[in-house]
TrEMBL record:
This is peptidoglycan glycosyltransferase. PANTHER family: CELL CYCLE PROTEIN (PTHR30474), PEPTIDOGLYCAN GLYCOSYLTRANSFERASE FTSW-RELATED (PTHR30474:SF2). One of its GO terms (cellular component) is plasma membrane. Its main location: membrane. It comes from marine sediment metagenome. Its EC number is 2.4.99.28. Keywords: Cell shape, Glycosyltransferase, Membrane, Peptidoglycan synthesis, Transferase, Transmembrane, Transmembrane helix. It is an enzyme of class 2 (transferase). GO terms for biological process: cell division; peptidoglycan biosynthetic process; regulation of cell shape. It is found in: Membrane. It is a multi-pass membrane protein.
Length: 169
């Protein structure tokens, strides 16, 4: 983003000379990572690239146009693989298969709900030891909710909001 602002301040407003070169590089990285297959990492690369284009000074209308094209393509890529479709459907209705694909989501909801208002205390989580083996990656918020409760999760969300707000200014 810094090089875009420094070297091509006037060019970034045009699509061909300002947006297309970084877009091609971004798409090559996106497709290489997607080929692994790692859809979530490729989406993160895509998101970071859009943020860099925005910070670099790309016109907002150009970014909106790219997003309008990217969303349907992303949905097609998501639904192309059967396992991705199954993960999405199990997220939408985890009770349909509570012992297999919906197990982690249900246990995550139970962890969040068992925290109550004030939580059960730091390092006192039952779910992270027996029912949520991936709690340190995918389900960290559920464990925070179980240990710190509703109040703790609200404080965490407020702290992240303040961090993002201060970073934006």
């Amino acid at each position: 983003a810094e090089s875009l602002t420094r070297k091509q301040l006037k060019d970034i407003k045009t699509f061909i000379r300002g947006v297309l070169p970084p877009l091609i590089i971004m798409l090559v990285m996106f497709l290489l990572i997607l080929n692994e297959p790692d859809f979530s990492t490729s989406l993160i690369i895509l998101g970071i690239s859009f943020i860099m284009l925005f910070i670099g000074g790309t016109r907002v209308i150009q970014l909106y146009a790219l997003i309008v094209v990217a969303i349907p393509l992303g949905i097609l890529i998501l639904l192309r693989e059967e396992y991705r479709k199954a993960r999405l459907l199990s997220f939408l209705d985890p009770w349909k298969d509570p012992l297999d694909s919906g197990f982690h989501i249900i246990q995550s909801l139970l962890a969040l709900g068992s925290g109550g208002i004030f939580g059960i205390g730091l390092a006192e989580s039952k779910q992270k030891y027996f029912y949520l083996p991936d709690q340190h990656t995918d389900f960290i918020f559920s464990i925070i909710g179980e240990e710190l409760g509703f109040i703790g999760t609200v404080v965490i969300i407020i702290l992240f909001t303040i961090l993002l707000w201060r970073d934006y200014q």
